[in-house]
C-alpha cells in the first residue's frame, strides 16, 4: 500500500484483524446447519428460517426499529436547535454551561444516565414503556446531532445568508431556503448516527423499558446469558448488516457533500 511502511502495514492489518475476525466468525456460524454453535455442520439458511418464525424476536425487532426511528427524528430536531445556538450565539451568558450540558451525555457512563432517568420516571410516576425509551434515547442521541450540526455551521460561509437578507429575505425564509439545504447532509448523517446508536443500545434501554417492551439488543443480551443459540447468530448478522448499511450511507452522504462544497468553492474562485 503506497505511503505505508511495512511495519505500519503489519500494525494496520493486525488492528483490522483484531476488530473484525470475531465478527466474521459470528457471521460464518450463522450459516451453520448444526445446533451447536461451535461445531460446523454444513452450510445452511436453517437458522434464518427459524428466526423469521420466532414472533418473540420479530416483535422485539419491530420495537427496536420504531424506537430508533422516533428517537432519531426527535434528536435531529432538538440537536439542530442546540447546534445552531452553539454555532451562532457565541457570547451569551451561560454559554459555557450550556455547551457542557449538551456535551455531557457524550462522556456520561450509560449506567448513570439510565439510572437517573429511571429515578426521574419513578418519581413522577410515569409508567415505563415506549414513551420513556424514546425520551431516554433522545437524551443521548441529540448530543451527537448537535456536534455534527455545529461543526457544519461553523464552516458555513455566512455571507450567503447575509446576501439573501440584503435582498429582502426574512430570517425564517433564509433559514429554510439557504441554511437548511447547506446543513442537510449533516442532518442526514446525524439521523443515521442516532438511529445506529439507538438501535443497539442495551444499558439505558434496560433501565427505561417496561414489561413487554424489550428491544432486540435486550432480548439478545438476555438470551446469551443462557447460552448462545444459532438464531442469535443469524439475528446478530442481520443487525450487523443494518448497521453497516447505515454507516456506509452516512459516509457516502458526507463524501458527496464534501465534493459538492469543493466544486462550489472552485466555481466561486473561478468567477471572482
Structure characterization notes:
The chain is mainly α. The protein has a domain at 55-241: Orthogonal Bundle (MetI-like fold), CATH 1.10.3720.10. Helices cover 77% and strands 0% of the residues. Helix 3 runs antiparallel to helix 8 (171-199). The longest helix is centred in the last third of the chain and has 42 residues, at 230-271. The protein is globular, with a radius of gyration of 23 Å. The two termini are 40 Å apart.
Largest sheet: none
Report the principal-axis shape: globular
Number of helices: 11
Low-confidence stretches: none
- The SSE order reads HHHHHHHHHHH
Strand content: under 5%
- Helix-strand category: mainly alpha
CATH topology of the domain at 55-241: MetI-like fold
State the end-to-end CA separation. Answer: 40 Å
The CATH class of the domain at 55-241 is Mainly Alpha
Helix coverage percent of residues?
over 70%
What's the alpha carbon Rg, rounded to whole Å? 23 Å
Transmembrane segments: 7-31, 60-85, 97-122, 134-154, 175-193, 232-253
Main location: membrane
Protein name: Putrescine ABC transporter permease PotI
Family: Belongs to the binding-protein-dependent transport system permease family. CysTW subfamily.
Amino acid at each position: 500500500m503506497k505511503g505505508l511502511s511495512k511495519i505500519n502495514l503489519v500494525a494496520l492489518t493486525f488492528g483490522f484483524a483484531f476488530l473484525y475476525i470475531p465478527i466474521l466468525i459470528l457471521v460464518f456460524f450463522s450459516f451453520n446447519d448444526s445446533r451447536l454453535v461451535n461445531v460446523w455442520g454444513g452450510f445452511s439458511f436453517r437458522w434464518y428460517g427459524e428466526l423469521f418464525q420466532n414472533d418473540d424476536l420479530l416483535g422485539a425487532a419491530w420495537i427496536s426499529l420504531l424506537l430508533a426511528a422516533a428517537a432519531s427524528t426527535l434528536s435531529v430536531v432538538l440537536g439542530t436547535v442546540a447546534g445552531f445556538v452553539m454555532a451562532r450565539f457565541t457570547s451569551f451568558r451561560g454559554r459555557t454551561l450550556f455547551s457542557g450540558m449538551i456535551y455531557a451525555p457524550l462522556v456520561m457512563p450509560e449506567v448513570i444516565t439510565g439510572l437517573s432517568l429511571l429515578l426521574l420516571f419513578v418519581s413522577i410516576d410515569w409508567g415505563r414503556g415506549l414513551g420513556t425509551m424514546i425520551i431516554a434515547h433522545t437524551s443521548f442521541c441529540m448530543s451527537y446531532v448537535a456536534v455534527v450540526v455545529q461543526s457544519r455551521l461553523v464552516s458555513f460561509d455566512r455571507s450567503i445568508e447575509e446576501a439573501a437578507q440584503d435582498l429582502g429575505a426574512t430570517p425564517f425564509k433564509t433559514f429554510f431556503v439557504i441554511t437548511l439545504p447547506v446543513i442537510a447532509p449533516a442532518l442526514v448523517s446525524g439521523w443515521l448516527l442516532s438511529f445506529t446508536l439507538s438501535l443497539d443500545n442495551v444499558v439505558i434501554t434496560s433501565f427505561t423499558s417496561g414489561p413487554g417492551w424489550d428491544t432486540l439488543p435486550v432480548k439478545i443480551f438476555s438470551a446469551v446469558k443462557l447460552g448462545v443459540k444459532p438464531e442469535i447468530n443469524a439475528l446478530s448478522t442481520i443487525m450487523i448488516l443494518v448497521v453497516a448499511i447505515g454507516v456506509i450511507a452516512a459516509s457516502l452522504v458526507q463524501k458527496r457533500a464534501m465534493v459538492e462544497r469543493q466544486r462550489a468553492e472552485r466555481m466561486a474562485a473561478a468567477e471572482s
